[in-house]
Write a structure and sequence with these properties.
Number of strands: 0
Strand content: under 5%
Largest sheet: none
Shape: globular
Helix content: over 70%
Number of helices: 13
Structural class: mainly alpha
Length: 310
């Protein structure tokens, strides 16, 4: 209780800064991240310098359109001041599978990042780090359970792609291959998970292969998605060249499309090295990098989910 009374004001300020980050503009987001980094360093002196969290999130400065909302920090402060409004937004955020997964994704990779930190001489912080692995395992397992029915939305996606295929033949083929990769990913992940729980009689070696090949199928989807986004960028650029004069409403709509494109592109760029890491037995990345890339992908997904609840 003594430690809580000491750290509570600082932790409260840090939490508020992170809350503001999810609802602010691009410039404010980087500023708030720097503030959060300083607060983290104050709480946990063992954090490396420069903070890898800031290095990872500096990628947000690549496209200024990554921050999707028009809301200001002032309106966010008023939301925080209203517990009822905040509670309703949190309820909306956690009421759908996709937004709940985005939330859990951000939390699990934040825990992964914290686990990578060098233990300090502080006994409370060392005990805190030692308590993270069981929590992380539980939350990661929860995400897998939420995906057990993932073949159903994939089937819906396949039907939609068949009934309304993209006009561009390259996008059409890319989408069809993506659907196949997603089927393989979800099927193998389900089999491996159910085998780990003893529901299916699968040998450990086979389960390990299923986990690895599911990760490879996920990697295939991610790189195909990057190819699809690249093709879309070419098509949009050609369309802009043909229609230089546009109505104001059309320009606003194009801006929204560009914002979504940038968000999706950065999310998949963040996922790409992680999928490659899990595609090999020995892996390619350490926990710190996995956590940093995961936080970037998860936070962008969480921010979009939060925007939709506003």
């Amino acid at each position: 209780m003594f430690l809580i009374s000491i750290y509570l004001p600082t932790i409260s300020k840090w939490s508020t800064s992170l809350f503001l980050l999810l609802r602010s503009t691009s410039a404010d987001a980087i500023s708030l991240l720097e503030i959060s980094s300083k607060l983290l360093t104050t709480i946990f002196p063992c954090l490396p310098t420069p903070n890898p969290l800031i290095v990872a999130f500096k990628l947000w400065e690549i496209p200024s359109l990554l921050i999707l909302t028009e809301q200001t920090v002032t309106s966010t402060v008023s939301t925080i001041a209203s517990p009822q409004s905040l509670t309703l937004e949190l309820y909306s955020l956690l009421s759908t599978t996709s937004s709940l997964d985005a939330t859990l994704c951000t939390v699990t990779y934040t825990i992964t990042f914290l686990q990578s930190l060098t233990p300090s001489s502080s006994a409370p912080f060392a005990r805190f780090l030692s308590s993270l692995p069981p929590l992380n395992a539980l939350l990661s397992e929860t995400r897998i359970i939420l995906r057990l029915w993932g073949l159903l939305p994939i089937y819906t996606w396949a039907v939609s792609a068949y009934n309304n295929p993209p006009k561009d033949i390259v996008l059409r083929y890319l989408e069809q291959i993506q659907i196949l990769f997603n089927i393989v990913f979800q099927l193998l992940e389900n089999l491996a998970f159910l085998g780990d729980k003893g529901i299916l009689a699968l040998r450990e070696k086979r389960r390990a292969k299923f986990w690895m090949w599911s990760s490879r199928a996920w990697a295939g989807h991610v790189f195909l998605e990057l190819a699809r986004l690249s093709r879309e960028a070419i098509i949009m650029r050609e369309a802009d060249m043909r229609t230089a004069d546009k109505e104001k409403e059309e320009k606003v709509e194009d801006r929204k499309i560009n914002q979504e494109w940038y968000r999706s592109f950065v999310v998949n760029v963040a996922y790409a090295p992680m999928t490659l890491h899990w595609s090999f037995e020995q892996g390619l990345l350490n926990e710190g990098l996995i956590g940093a890339f995961g936080i970037l992908a998860g936070a962008l997904g969480l921010r979009e989910a939060w925007r939709q609840t506003a």
